[in-house]
Structures are given as C-alpha cells and as structure tokens.
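FAQ: What does a ligand-bound record look like?

Like this one, built around adenosine-5'-diphosphate:
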Amino acid sequence: MGFWLDIVVAAPAHSGITGPLTYESKSALSPGQLVRVPLGRREVLGVVWGLRSDAGSLSPGQSKSVLDVLEGLPALSANWQALIGFTANYYQRSVGEVALAALPPQLRELDALGLARRLKKAASSPLAPETMAQADRPALSAQQAQALELFEDTRRPALLFGATGSGKTEVYLRAAEELLQERPQAQVLMMVPEINLTPQLETRLRDRFAGLGPGAVVALHSGLTPAQRLKSWLAAHTGQARLILGTRMAVLASLPQLQLIVVDEEHDPSYKQQEGARYSARDLAVYRAHLESRSVADKAAGCRVMLGSATPSLETWQACLKGRYLRLDMPLRIGASGVGEGPEVRVLDMSKQAKGALLAPPLMQAIAERVSRGEQSLVFLNRRGYAPVLACHACGWKSQCPHCSAYRVFHKVDRSLRCHHCGYTEPVPRGCPDCGNVDITPVGRGTEQLEEQVAHLLSDLKRPDGSPVRVLRIDADSARGKGVLQARLAQVHAGHTDVLVGTQMVTKGHDFRHITLVAAVNPDSSLYSSDFRAPERLFALLMQAAGRAGRQAQHSATAQMWVQTFHPQHPLFDALRRHDYAGFAQEELHSRQSAGLPPFSHAALLRAEAASQELAQDFLRAAAQAAAQQVLPGADRVQLYPAVPMPLQRLANVERAQMLIESASRPALQQFMSAWQPVLAQLSSQHAFKRLMRWALDVDPLSI
Ligand code: ADP
Ligand code: ZN
Ligand code: ZN
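The answer part, i.e. the structure of the complex:
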C-alpha cells in the first residue's frame, strides 16, 4: 500500500502535459520535496506538488512509482510553490516547465547520494556570525536617511526615485544591513540587470557583509558554471546565504527566509526573460514580496520590496501616481548643493551642420578642450561595427544577410560582414557580388568608425603632459573575451583614456569619476520608431548617459551632455534639458492613455515561427478564428489584431509573425488566454500546421 502524489516534471512542450502527473510512493512525502521519477523511457527530476487521497481517475497499475527521493534536501516552501504556480499561470506556461527551469540544471543529474555529498561539502564551511563591522560606511546624506526612514514605515512596494549619483546603492545596502542584523535568519535578494557590467558590486557586497561570515553572500546568474550555480542555489535554499546578488533568474530561486527584495535599475529591459516563460523579474519581485507577506501574521515580518531607478518604467511610475507604490525621492547627487544639478544639456541641430559630419565641429571643439584640461569624454552610438551596411552604388547591391531580414554589418578590423542577429559572417568580397564593381562602400556609422574619426580629429592634440591623445572603444566587439571588459573599464577609471567611445554598454551604471562630457551621436532613430516604448527607452538612455558626466563634485558645474539631432524641437529633448523625468513621464503617459497603450491597457503577443511567412500567419489567423468560433471566456473584452510579420521578420531562415491581443481588463485577458491555450495546442497539432515550428504567447511584451 503506497501514497499517491502529484508531481511536476519538465515535460517537453509537444507532449501536451500541462499539469502534474500522478505517481505512487512507498513512503509518505511532503509537497516541495524533490524526487526522481520515470517519464516515458527516461528518468527525470520532479517536484512533489501535492498529495492525493487516492489515485483519482487512474486505474491501478496506470501510474508509475517514485524511483528516488532527494532526502537530504529540505522541501521547497509553500510560498515558492505558490510563486511558481502564479508565474506559470500568468505567463501561460506549464507549472512543471517553470518549476524545473527555476532549479539549477545540475540538480537534474544528481541522485540522492550525489546530492548528500554536495550538501555535506557545503555544510563543512560553517558560518561564523559576528556583529557586522561598522567601519567604512559613509555617513548617510539627509535624503538617503529620509528615504530609509520612509521605507522602514511602509508595507507598500517602494520606488527609490534617485538621480544618478544620488547614492541609491548605499540605501539598498543600509536597508539590507539593518534587516540582516535585526533578524538572524533573514535573507535579502538584490537584483541587478547584468552582473558583468558591475563587477565591483559583488566585491563591495562581500566586503560590506564580511561580518556575516564566509558564504553569506552569493551570486546567482547565468555567467556561473553549473557547479557554482548549484552551490549558490543550495546556499540560498538552505538559508546559509543571507544576501543573494542575482540577475533576473534569481527571482525564482528558493529563498525560505526572504524578507527584502531590491530591484536596481528596475526599468532595464533585461529583467524580461525572452524565451520559455517570458516573465518580468521586476513584476515577479513585487508579486513575490506580496506573497511572502500574505502568509505572515506578524505585520513587521513579511517581505518588502524596493525598486530603484533614476528613470523608472512608466508602469512603475503610474503605480506611484496611483498610490499603489510609495515613491522615495532623492533628487540630489551626493555632494551636490542644490536641486537641478546635473550636466548642462546641449542639443545640437545637425541640419545646421556641414552635411555628412559624424561629429559636429562645436562638439569636437568641446571634446578637444576637455582633453587639454586632462578631463575625460564619453561619446556613444548605439551601433557597433564600422558601418551598418556595405553597398554598391553601381547596381544597388547591399550586404543583406542571406538568412535574416537584416543587413550584415561591416567590421573593418577583420574586414568581415557580420549578421548581428544570426551571427553569419563572411569576409568582405573584393568586388560587388552582383556586378563586380570594386568600389563598394560603407553606408552609415558604427562605433568602430566613430573611434577612427575621433582619433583622427584629435591626432594633433596633446594631453597636458605632452603625450598623445588616447581613444578607447568599449562595445560587445572590443570587450569580447574573459576579463577584457574589466581591463578596459579599469583603464578608464585609472584615467588612461581621454575619450571613451562605445555603445550603451558604457552609459549605464558605471561610476566614472573623471568624465565631464557625454555625447549622444545619433539618437534620432528612436524618436519616430514604431515601437511604442522607444521614446521611454531613449529618454532613460540619455538620462543615464548624462549621469556619467560630472560625478565628481568639483566637475559638476562644468559637466555637459551633448545630443546631435535633426529634431532639436522634439519635446523629449526639452524634458532632457530640464533633467525632468516627471515631466517626460507625464507627457508620455498622456499619449499612452489616448492611444490605449500599456499601462492603460494590457497586452500579449501570440507569436508563430515557420519556414514560410504565410504558414506562420495562417496559424495566427486560424487561432483567431478558433477563438471567435468557440466564444472563449473573456473574449468579449479582448481584442485580437491582424497577424503581421515581426519587426525582424526572418531570423536564421525562420519566418516569424505575431498577433497582438489587447484588453482593458487584466482578468479578462488572463481568462481568455487560459482558455485559448489548449485550443492553440490542438490547432498546432493539426495536419495543416505540421510544418509550423513553434508558437508561444508573450504576456506583457516589451514591444508590440
Ligand atoms: P546611484 O546608484 O544613485 O547612481 P551610487 O550609489 O553609484 O549612485 O553613488 C554615487 C557615489 O556616491 C558613489 O561613489 C558612492 O560611493 C558615493 N556615496 C553614496 N552614498 C554616500 C554617502 N552617504 N556619503 C558619501 N558618498 C556616498
Ligand atoms: Zn554592384
Ligand atoms: Zn543573419
């Protein structure tokens, strides 16, 4: 006589398994325990999701038995299960897929014995809790102290709306420190968009929290080896780790004593997962805090959440306006003496400049002045490579990627044509492949060309010590390879660079001390983009970039931000001149509201991929038709738009199409999608769609 259990496994998408499977076990198990079970002919990792009083509708012998129980491991908490359940339901994926994807991959390969060994190894480095060192913490600024005080008193999610350089990180650290000191079990999750861009942060956290003992601070992100990731995850799951620094994936980690979540740069698009369950880690952080607090009787316990940004997402801003979130303002930079500081913004009208100049003479002049004063400048352009297209003016040939609906970018360093979407790379042809013309030329500009031009234009200039000017480029190409990015950043920090040229990679987060001029070379393409979030993203980018200038108090008065544009009258630049995020947000929210766009409506995309665009769109149309015929719940309040090609229509020989689903009511949208999901699965298995490759729903997509 055994026990019946509901167990979730990562069933392959085509299996049609969406809910838990029933298994039999000889021993009594608890929900949240990890087991190994048979699935088809394989043996897989599963999570006990619930207990059953009987075999349900199964006839005896139909279910299978649990093979192994990973006994040394404490069960995953009910809150974790609830979080996974919510994520699966909200983002329209199976519980098993989300649950298993949230576990470290190496856990799948371990049997009970292997796991016991890992746990033993982890336990042999015991914690030696001491009181935390009080040394080398700066005295809080008045606005930092006030933000912390307000945060202390609220149970609402908080937005730390702090100008760049206002000292947001110190606020996060103090909030964490107070909690960890007060509650010896408590755990803190600190999320950042990309760990590689801020390698200093991890070191800083380890130093700051050294008093908690070895192993109390762990990192959790995709850059770790599978073994490291398992180790960090186990430390978090067993409660050994007190502070977890992670990227978006960390929001689904097992954290049984979680009491504070920080989401730094909450507006950053990289918090949105772009495959599988396409969750927003920021949104899940807010939900998770709510979930952890719901089950706690003690109002002082529970979990709080702090989102931080100088340029919050409009969703978060709207939540503050509505009073759902509490806003904590820090308008002043550390060391600043008055409001409204920040670099002076100069918007340069490119239609008044000589045609074809990459950098307008007044900007070059300003950069040259900085160089001779021994100050640094940062010039950025959101396009890497030398030129985005190579073209033949004799016959019109262009460096189209044969596999994508995109041009291959010309890279001069190795004279290659590279597709930035699928990676397809070829040497630059000697002549035009179509007509043989040897005079094929680059069109447009990338960072490589920018670097070349800046170096050329400054070649006659000397630094204060008489040595030649040094220009350094940092982008995904120049920073390839282990440690290269760090080394290049270190060069800038050490003052060995006069002009830093780069992509947006260098505009975010870095605490450069000697940069006094920042220039955006060509931001115009985002001004009139079809992507409704493009202005929001551009404004955030420019504000963040401006935040790199004049971070040292002595320079803050002379710091400048230059913008080259053909649309100097655009209202976005007006708001930028005033450093007025609130003003920008108000206008942008207003236009979103009149257009019925998020956050005033709720959206999802149904995407399809196939060998032909026609087939992909056929599937979407059939899906819409099926929804209409079956009168699905919620359908009366949901609008389906026509199927269209995706902005990047063809990627690596796959044709992609999408259909927008929109509703003013979140519950109606969710209800509709849940009912639609099985219809879609059924449809895709029909003969007509045998050659369809993939379909998926993207809830709250980044761009529509
Ligand atoms: P933000 O993240 O808001 O842009 P940072 O956290 O990078 O700002 O802080 C800007 C700089 O100010 C950093 O060099 C930081 O070490 C310093 N800083 C932060 N708080 C204080 C403080 N209370 N006193 C002195 N310096 C501080
Ligand atoms: Zn040609
Ligand atoms: Zn390609």
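Follow-up question: can I read anything off the structure? Yes, for example: The mean pLDDT is 91.
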